[in-house]
Structures are given as structure tokens and as C-alpha cells.
Design a protein that fits this description.
Blueprint lengths: L6 E2 L2 E2 L2 H31 L6 H17 L2 H9 L6 H34 L1 H5 L2 H26 E6 L2 E6 L4 H34 L3 H4 L1 H33 L5 H40 L1
Antiparallel strand pairs: 1-2, 3-4
Helix pairs in contact: 1-2, 1-3, 1-10, 2-4, 2-10, 4-6, 4-7, 7-9, 9-10
């Protein structure tokens, strides 16, 4: 998971890449913000204190709004220059990372909660309202912990006439550690839990009303597939960067090519993670309001 950068080192973005990234981010902002606000309003109007699913839906919508609200700044940055302070640079990095981490964790908790509510309702009931609030609080704390490296390593770098808001790591080993943690904790582990939860649920209750409705089955599948499709490209770029670092000594030319590819394509690729915040209002609101 990365925040968009216009450039790094001696590599500059192409105008086509900038235009495509700008179009995607503008679409995310124009659709995602109103869509998630509508979700928040609808949930608050029909809010039920004893329905933890609604709490998770509200948490997801808030996470999406927080990640999307910074897009006008990033869009301006892509097309012009970073004219803001270093404090704002660090804050926006931290905000986007935290909100996106919260969104991923919320989706993961949703899948586990679905599994427990359907198959082990008594165990989930033992958690109680207090336990559910503690769980949400811990979710945000963990999201902040995952995002702390972004705030620590982000700096404003001046190259020529341009200023860049970048995540900088002094050593390759530090960069490698950060990328591995992002990929493993931010994608591999959550998606493994999500897929496992839905697989076990489908396997054990495929004869019940939950899965007898094919439309609901397709919606549940769409949630997982959409998450994978929109988050996988960004983490594939992370893997390319990891490979580039690993080959830096053994094969410098291949490492340079891999690094160049990741830098030139990352703005477009990382834009897809923001798209997930746009489709969430439709996917999650419709699905969970139908199932519960």
C-alpha cells in the first residue's frame, strides 16, 4: 500500500501516466465521497446499537472517506508541485495509510464476524457490546501502528525545481522490511482470513438459506474478488520493488530495470486502491443490509 508519488530519484512520470492517474483519482473523489456520505447517513438513520454489522459498515465508510478526502491535494501534486509543508506531507501519508489499513482490517473482521454469527452465534454473543467496542478501538490502534513507518520516513525532497513528498528509507534493508510488512500484513494475511472464512462458511452451510440464494452468493463472492483485483496490483508493485532490492548486488542491470518499471507504473497501479473505496458503498451496503 503506497501513497502516490510523482517521482523518485532520477525517474520521472510520463504525461500519459499522470493524466490516467489524475482521471482515476478524480473519479474516485467525485463518486467515492458522496457515495460513502450517503452510506453514513443511511446507517445513522437506521442505526441499531446491537447490530455490530452496522458498526462495521459505518467504520468502513468513515475509513473510505478519510482516505478519499485527501485526493485533491494528491491530484494537484501530481500535476504541479508539492507546495505544502513537511508536516502536511507526513500527516496526509499517515492519514491515507491509517484509513486504508482500517478499511482492510474492517473487511477482515466482517468476514470473521459473518462466519461466527452464522455458525457460532453463541460464541460471538459472548463478546457483548463492550467487547465489540474494544474490538473496533483495537482495530484503529493496529491500523495506526501499521501506518507509523509512513509518518516516520516521509520527507520533502527537492530535485531541480520540483519538490516531492516521498517515503524515504535510508537503507535497502529498511525499505525491504517495510515493503514485506505492507504486503504480508496489509494483503496476504487479511485476504487469507477473508477467503478462509467465506470458504468454510460456504462449505458448512451451503444447504441453508444463506447460500441457497444465488444472488447473495454472487454478492459475497464479488466482495472478495473486488478486494483482490483492486489491491493485488499495488502489492505486485511492492513485490517488484522487493525483487529489485534483492537483485541489486547480484544483477544491477535487472534491478535497475525492475525499479524503473515500478516507479513509472506505480501511480496508476496505486490509484486502484482508491477505487476500492468507491465501490465499497455499493458492495458492502447492499450486501450486508440484505443479509442481516
Amino acid at each position: 500500500m503506497q501513497v502516490l508519488n510523482d517521482s523518485n530519484s532520477n525517474i520521472t512520470s510520463t504525461s500519459v501516466e499522470t493524466q490516467v492517474s489524475t482521471a482515476l483519482l478524480s473519479l474516485c473523489f467525485l463518486i467515492g465521497i458522496p457515495g460513502n456520505i450517503v452510506v453514513v447517513v443511511v446507517i445513522l438513520r437506521h442505526f441499531k446499537k446491537d447490530n455490530f454489522t452496522l458498526h462495521l459498515m459505518l467504520n468502513l465508510a468513515v475509513s473510505d472517506i478519510l482516505s478519499l478526502i485527501s485526493l485533491p491535494v494528491w491530484i494537484y501534486y501530481l500535476n504541479a508541485d508539492w507546495i505544502f509543508s513537511q508536516a502536511l506531507c507526513k500527516f496526509l501519508y499517515f492519514l491515507v495509510y491509517t484509513s486504508m489499513s482500517s478499511g482492510v482490517l474492517t473487511v477482515t473482521v466482517m468476514s470473521v464476524q459473518r462466519y461466527l454469527v452464522v455458525l457460532h452465534r453463541n460464541q460471538w454473543t459472548k463478546l457483548g457490546n463492550k467487547g465489540e467496542k474494544v474490538l473496533l478501538f483495537c482495530l484503529w490502534i493496529f491500523a495506526c501502528i501499521l501506518s507509523s513507518p509512513a509518518a516516520v520516513t516521509t520527507q520533502i525532497v527537492e530535485e531541480g525545481q520540483r519538490h516531492y513528498c516521498l517515503g524515504i528509507s535510508g537503507l535497502d534493508q529498511e525499505t525491504l522490511t517495510i515493503l514485506l510488512c505492507e504486503t504480508l500484513l496489509g494483503f496476504v494475511l487479511p485476504i487469507s482470513i477473508i477467503v478462509s472464512s467465506y470458504y468454510c462458511l460456504h462449505k458448512k452451510v451451503n444447504q441453508t438459506a444463506f447460500f441457497s440464494n444465488q444472488r447473495l452468493t454472487r454478492l459475497v463472492t464479488t466482495i472478495v474478488v473486488t478486494f483482490v483485483i483492486l489491491w493485488l496490483p499495488g502489492h505486485m508493485i511492492n513485490l517488484v520493488k522487493i525483487l529489485a532490492i534483492a537483485l541489486k548486488s547480484a544483477n544491477p542491470s535487472v534491478s535497475a530495470k525492475l525499479n524503473s518499471f515500478s516507479e513509472l507504473s506505480k501511480n496508476i497501479v496505486y490509484s486502484f486502491t482508491f477505487l476500492n473505496s468507491c465501490v465499497n458503498p455499493l458492495l458492502y451496503a447492499c450486501t450486508f443490509s440484505t443479509l442481516f
